[in-house]
Specification:
By secondary structure, this protein is an alpha+beta fold. It contains 18 helices and 18 strands. It has a six-stranded mixed sheet, with helices on both faces. The chain has a four-stranded mixed sheet with strand order 1-10-9-8. It has a four-stranded antiparallel sheet with strand order 4-5-7-6.
């Protein structure tokens, strides 16, 4: 009896040692990343930043941009240019771009990547019946795509288009035709609702990793893709651990539950720096948090927001500089415009904190406190605004500060927070709060283009306000100005950099003067990694656009 117990104990100890050894071996090639916002679906059905960032691991495209905004090839042999003969102009004066795929590319299931996949992606982005997705400039400016041979595709624009390398119009070759086309045919010709995207069932891609599993509410796991032809990752497995509370992400790094935290803001920098094993770094970002106004005609918002004077009064009433410095530190600037400084005119008008002017504008617009209850009203409607944001605490702190400032001028607010991809940023068919226009004010960030003066027509032109007829429209605020729309078209096809910049400046003035956007604070891409386990220098060459923060993950090295 005694000897049996001893043998059992010895066996258990041996097993524990073996398991420990295996776990240690796995740990040496595993990185766990804290993920703040769980995707609602995989891209392109979800265009939110945290969804699109997953593509860096399993679904690369034809090219990407480095930290200096220079494009580099991924699926193609070279970046098309006039100099290398891959960009020409046809008899109509329209831009023609030739894509030459690298030979022997394979999807993560071993199937060959060919020109047919590029044609399939083109169909996804030109036929709006194929899915409720953000298509940016693509369907407006791309006239046709022609297959020349198994590895060569020619894309013809319907105009002269100087931004042919832009990520809003480059050929979407990242979707496997052999997998998705049969699924779409069985689903009424659309990718909407496909388990492939909603539950990551059978996902196939081209990237250093393949998507192994998605446990909703918990994690997304990637493992090395044996068919990837680029740099072999030194890290065998990547886990995106869903932690919706940014404070808990910091705690998770400190306790060793995760290895990498990112997208945290400067108010948390001291806490991360105090973690002994943490190594920190930052890159520039095209993101700025802002207060957005719902100004849709016929919308469900408070009618006061349709009055420019009221919108000006709201901005004048909020002491944005004091709030931002209190929450993020002295000297933190207030963004002057939605577009980054390189595209802003020198004479841009910025509305400053001026509560006296705010009260004057509200009085002139007819919003007065007729029943002396502390809230202004007009024609029987009280000036009560619904202010939405995500579950991020810093944004909720902004809500509270804004609420206090607006109350001082007789504007009442109701504060709401909601999960980003699942609720606030969800699509029109899924009744997303912003897409449906079921808000008055909202605090969130949206990226401007750091590479080109081009303007995303999907988000700001009159015809792209979401509706039953245009469910994938991205113009959530409902901004509509024919003069702005005209500038969008002019900038799109203007090859002269001098006059194009002048047009851009005018578009920035129109956008800013409409006062449906008020900047709160600029963003950096902040990272903190366990420097005892990973070589931080190998990790710093991450991208600086809004969706490529892990574009060089295959080069990361464990210690």
């Amino acid at each position: 009896m005694t000897s049996g117990i001893v043998r059992r104990i010895m066996s258990v100890c041996l097993l524990l040692l073996l398991v420990s050894g295996v776990a240690q071996a796995q740990e040496d090639t595993l990185i766990v990343i804290g993920w703040e916002q769980e995707p609602r679906t995989l891209p392109p059905l979800d265009a939110a930043v945290f969804s699109r960032l997953t593509q860096d691991f399993y679904s690369r495209n034809v090219w990407d941009w480095d930290q200096d905004y220079n494009p580099y090839p991924i699926m193609v042999t070279a970046i098309p240019s006039i100099e290398n003969g891959l960009v020409t102009t046809n008899d109509e004066g329209h831009t023609v771009v030739t894509y030459q795929l690298k030979p022997d590319l394979k999807w993560s299931d071993g199937e060959a990547i060919t020109a047919d996949d590029c044609l399939f992606g083109h169909r996804l982005y030109t036929d709006r019946n194929t899915g409720t997705i953000s298509r940016n400039d693509y369907p407006q400016v791309v006239e046709s795509v022609e297959k020349i041979d198994e590895l060569t595709v020619v894309q013809t624009f319907n105009t002269l288009y100087p931004d042919f390398v832009s990520d809003s119009v480059y050929l979407p070759c990242r979707f496997p035709q052999h997998v998705l086309e049969p699924l779409m045919e069985a689903n009424g010709g659309t990718i909407d609702g496909l388990p492939y995207f909603t539950n990551a069932e059978g996902v196939v891609g081209y990237g250093p990793y393949r998507l192994e599993s998605w446990i909703k509410g918990e994690s997304i796991t990637f493992v090395k893709n044996p068919y990837w032809d680029g740099q072999e990752p030194a890290i065998a497995r990547v886990i995106l651990k869903m932690i919706p509370d940014v404070t808990q992400i910091q705690n998770a790094l400190e306790t060793g539950e995760i290895d990498l935290a990112f997208n945290w803001l400067e108010n948390l920098a001291a806490g991360y720096a105090a973690i002994p094993e943490a190594a920190l770094w930052s890159t520039t970002s095209p993101l700025q948090d802002a207060l957005w106004f719902n100004i849709r005609e016929g919308g469900t918002q408070n009618p006061a927001l349709l009055d420019l004077q009221v919108r000006q009064a709201i901005v004048h009433a909020i002491n944005r500089q004091v709030i931002t410095e209190a929450l993020l530190g002295a000297g933190t600037p207030i963004p002057a415009a939605y577009d980054l400084p390189r595209w802003q005119p020198d004479d841009l008008t910025v509305l400053e904190y001026d509560p006296e002017r705010a009260n004057q504008l509200l009085n002139e617009a007819g919003w007065v406190d007729s029943n002396e209850n502390g809230v202004r009203d007009k024609d029987g409607v009280e000036l009560v605004l619904r202010v939405y944001t995500t579950t991020r605490k810093l944004r909720q702190d902004y809500q509270l500060a804004i609420q206090q400032d607006l109350s001082a001028v007789g504007i009442s607010t109701q504060l709401f927070s909601a999960p980003g991809p699942q609720v606030l940023f969800a699509s029109y068919p899924l009744r997303g709060i912003l897409a449906r226009g079921d808000y008055d004010l909202a605090i969130y960030s949206a990226p401007s283009d750091p590479i080109s003066p081009n303007i995303d027509p999907d988000a700001y032109t009159c015809g792209m306000v979401p509706s039953d007829a245009m469910p994938d429209g991205g113009n959530w605020s409902g901004y509509c100005d024919p003069a702005f729309d005209e500038l969008v078209g002019a900038i799109r096809s203007n090859p002269d950099p001098v006059s194009r910049l002048e047009q851009k400046h005018e578009s920035v003035r129109l956008f800013t003067d409409a006062v449906f956007w008020a900047g709160l604070f600029p963003r950096l891409n902040n990272y903190a990694v366990n420097g005892e386990r990973f070589d931080v220098e190998s990790m710093k060459t991450v991208g600086t656009s809004n969706t490529n923060w892990f574009n060089h993950v295959e080069y990361w090295q464990p210690k």
